[in-house]
Task: inverse folding
């Protein structure tokens, strides 16, 4: 029984993330043997549609032949070299191409290996910019209610999700939270844009009062992912941009989850017609292959560090900064965007998911069916305790990987589903819903 062996060994030796390990006494682990496009296959041969892109990282399927080929080529050239004092083609090319995707507005790229580190870098860069600019008192941050920006200690300070934050409260210097523009908060007859304006009015009051101490506002553009796929109107970003300009506060766009086409445009902030001062990217950047993150910043920020004095420099570093293999995977991802017109194809995929969901969920006990590009979500009424765990197990039975957040079920598949498989994904999700509601 090789599978049992592997599961037992895993539970004995591996501390799994985001998991109460004792729950695995009831809920078995899944041992994944291989990936193939949108499919994950376990060691017993069971196949699951990867409905959440392996924690939102995978863009073009597992074992994608084009990304594989790029990595195989890179393996024969250079796997890694330190980036202090050295450079290499993949990191330069990636920086140039990412900057070009911001219309050249963000001219410099600083690398790390995971999303939380990108958040830390953006916060430190912002505060250090104000210090170098003679305003050291600007060292506080604002985030939105329900925000998620990662779980290292600095990133947790701008994360407003109690279950991740409360145990570590004594370690944190928490940011102030301002109202979320969550479109579900609309009063009868109120539009999502009006909710956004109400939330922006709260932001305005806060900035008016505290801007002298505030370095930056950090936001997840258009979709607050980890607090339950909270979606909001682009109007909020337009108003936030204007307010940040007026009160001289940086706007940090954390597009770790929504970048790389996930929201329907390449970057989500494009839908508001704005540009951030700092941009955090990770997750999809390497197509789900290798840990890589980056912070892009405006040249004006970069120039505030450019000096003869070492202490004015940004001395942050990680051992794997600018890893050549990860950068090469990211270049292969950008090549696919260029060659395949991915954004147009995703508009079709988003429409297929929307049509199937509208039809199949019509008479189910759900609310707030919502979608932004390749993210579709709905909230389950009277889901009962343990819904997320029950749903996950029911979904596995139906051959699909889906992990609700509380009572919010969401689909966030890789950009490879055809019409039949888009339909199949929604059908399996709905069958899992019926099964998990039937057996509370
Ligand atoms: C996942 C995520 C992070 C953290 O990224 P990690 O790689 O998990 O550290 C930060 N911000 C957002 C919006 C995310 O979705």
Result:
């Amino acid at each position: 029984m090789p599978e049992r062996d592997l599961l037992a060994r895993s539970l004995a030796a591996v501390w799994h993330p985001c998991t109460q390990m004792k729950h695995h006494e009831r809920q078995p682990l899944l041992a994944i043997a291989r990936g193939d496009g949108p499919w994950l296959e376990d060691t017993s041969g069971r196949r699951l549609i990867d409905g959440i892109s392996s924690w939102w990282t995978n863009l073009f399927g597992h074992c994608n032949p084009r990304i594989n080929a790029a990595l195989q080529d890179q393996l024969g050239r250079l796997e890694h070299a330190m980036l202090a004092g050295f450079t290499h083609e993949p990191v330069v090319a990636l920086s140039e191409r990412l900057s070009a995707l911001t219309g050249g507005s963000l001219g410099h790229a600083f690398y790390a290996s995971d999303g939380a580190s990108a958040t830390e870098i953006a916060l430190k860069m912002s505060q250090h910019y104000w210090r170098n600019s003679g305003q050291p008192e600007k060292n506080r941050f604002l985030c939105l209610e329900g925000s998620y920006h990662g779980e290292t200690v600095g990133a947790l300070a701008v994360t407003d999700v109690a279950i991740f934050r409360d145990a570590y409260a004594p370690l944190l210097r928490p940011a102030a939270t301002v109202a979320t523009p969550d479109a579900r908060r609309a009063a009868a007859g109120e539009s999502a844009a009006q909710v956004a304006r109400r939330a922006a009015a709260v932001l305005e009051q806060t900035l008016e009062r505290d801007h002298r101490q505030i370095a930056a506002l950090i936001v997840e553009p258009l979709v607050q992912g980890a607090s339950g796929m909270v979606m909001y109107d682009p109007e909020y970003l337009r108003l936030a941009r204007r307010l940040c300009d007026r009160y001289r506060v940086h706007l940090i766009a954390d597009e770790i989850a929504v970048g790389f086409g996930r929201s329907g445009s390449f970057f989500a902030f494009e839908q508001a017609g704005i540009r951030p001062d700092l941009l955090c990217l990770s997750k999809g950047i390497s197509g789900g292959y290798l840990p890589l993150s980056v912070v892009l910043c405006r040249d004006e920020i970069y120039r505030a560090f450019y000096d003869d004095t070492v202490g004015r420099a940004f001395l942050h570093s990680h051992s794997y900064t600018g890893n050549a293999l990860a950068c090469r995977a990211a270049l292969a991802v950008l090549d696919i965007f260029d060659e395949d017109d991915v954004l147009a194809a995703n508009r079709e995929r988003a429409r297929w998911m929307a049509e199937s969901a509208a039809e199949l969920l019509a008479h189910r006990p759900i609310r707030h069916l919502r979608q932004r590009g390749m993210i579709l979500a709905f909230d389950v009424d009277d889901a009962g305790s343990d819904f997320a765990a029950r749903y996950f197990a029911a979904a596995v039975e139906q051959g699909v990987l889906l992990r609700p957040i509380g009572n919010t079920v969401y689909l966030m598949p890789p950009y490879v589903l055809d019409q039949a498989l888009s339909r199949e994904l929604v059908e399996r999700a709905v069958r899992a819903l019926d099964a998990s509601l039937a057996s509370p």
Observations:
- Residues 114-116, 119, 148-150, 220, 225-226, 254, 256-257, 282-283 surround pyridoxal-5'-phosphate (CB under 6 Å).
- The radius of gyration is 22 Å.
- The chain has a mean pLDDT of 97.
- The chain has 14 helices and 16 strands.
